[in-house]
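Design request, tokens follow.
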């Protein structure tokens, strides 16, 4: 399996591809790059030989996570297809999520809604939703970001979307109650929540998931100051190796037989 965090500037887009031919996309958008779907995401898919996405997992509706999804839906034809789009299952689905659902229906794409406990299993790969829980009481779109645990044999990766402290506390509570599907020994890779903002990746949460490696997607000199120095310090204190798209460009995690390695393609000067 290879998992590629694409360089989309200030945004998020991650492609998962297995040797058995399973392909998935986690989010796809940017607020600093135009036509991200066509020129960043689709170009990578074409380069990687991906003509069909089994699943597109959308964490939440912020533009920097979904702007390119609309483009990909419009590009579906006899040479490229999206089979399923997965949205977080929330009580009041309006605005962008509703628009994406309708666009998917119009293009003949199946739409699914995920809550904690739902999972997709293919061969040795398992993708399970660990947040939000059913009837979750959220305050912002970041709160209800769908969080997914990817596991293949002994490898694990947690995809946080833009989840911040409130969502992290919910996940921590679930883990303390039932294990929440997380291995107490920790995870290999953390897709850091909300681009490394100070409100995400709390000390308590990092202690829970014990990531060996953290990936941060953010734009060069972005106006938000992502990633924040407080968050980076928490990773440093935990002994977690950090890779950032604003410094490294595309970041790829290659997984085989339970082992993994991280590759970068454009080491930039700070």
């Amino acid at each position: 399996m290879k998992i590629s965090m694409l360089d989309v500037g200030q945004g998020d887009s991650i492609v998962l591809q297995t040797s058995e031919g399973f392909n998935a996309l986690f989010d796809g958008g940017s607020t600093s790059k135009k036509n991200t779907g066509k020129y960043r995401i689709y170009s990578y898919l074409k380069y990687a030989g991906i003509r069909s996405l089994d699943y597109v997992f959308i964490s939440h509706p912020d533009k920097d996570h979904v702007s390119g999804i609309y483009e990909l839906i419009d590009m579906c034809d006899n040479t490229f297809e999206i089979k399923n789009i997965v949205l977080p299952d929330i009580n009041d689905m309006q605005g962008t999520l509703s628009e994406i659902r309708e666009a998917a229906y119009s293009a003949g794409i199946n739409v699914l809604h995920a809550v904690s406990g739902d999972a997709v299993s293919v061969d040795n790969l398992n993708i399970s939703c660990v947040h939000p829980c059913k009837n979750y009481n959220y305050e912002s779109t970041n709160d209800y970001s769908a969080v997914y645990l990817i596991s293949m044999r002994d490898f694990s990766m947690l995809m946080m979307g833009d989840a911040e402290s409130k969502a992290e506390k919910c996940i921590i509570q679930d883990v303390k109650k039932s294990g929440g599907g997380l291995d107490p020994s920790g995870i290999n890779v953390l897709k850091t929540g909300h681009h490394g903002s100070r409100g995400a990746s709390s000390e308590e949460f990092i202690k829970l998931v014990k990531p060996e490696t953290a990936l941060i997607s953010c734009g060069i000199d972005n106006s938000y100051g992502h990633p924040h120095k407080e968050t980076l310090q928490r990773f440093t204190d935990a002994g977690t190796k950090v890779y950032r798209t604003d410094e490294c460009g595309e970041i790829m995690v290659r997984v085989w037989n339970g082992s993994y390695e991280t590759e970068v393609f454009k080491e930039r000067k700070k």
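Comment from the thread starter after seeing the answer: thanks! The first strand starts at residue 2 and ends at 5.
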